[in-house]
Amino acid sequence: MQDLFKRINRKINGTVVNFIVTGVILLIAAILIVWTDFFLRLVIGLLVVTVAYLFFYLAYKTWWLKKEIEKFLKF
Asked: Hey, where are the domains in the chain?
């Protein structure tokens, strides 16, 4: 049973890291998109920043859910 929880814990940690890395990459892409042409690229850049924020938020909520499950199961 502990092995199952360790595997689930590793998968959740991997998902959190994946969300954070994707958010950072999209944030860098948003900065590079906005840097050249202004209005159209500003809209596209803001869209990419919004998606990056979504990934950061998903990473935080996944981490929070993992902590709540650990607290509930006490391991």
From this structure: 2-73
**Banded model confidence at residue 31, pLDDT cuts 50, 70, 90:** confident
- Where residue 37 falls (left for φ over 0; alpha for ψ -120 to 50; beta otherwise) is beta
Residues 6+ apart with CB under 8 A from 13: 66
CA torsion 19→20→23→27, rounded to 10°? Answer: -170
Range with lowest mean pLDDT among 3-7, 39-43, 54-58: 39-43
What radius of gyration do the chain's Cα atoms show?
17
Which tokens go with 64? 């929070």
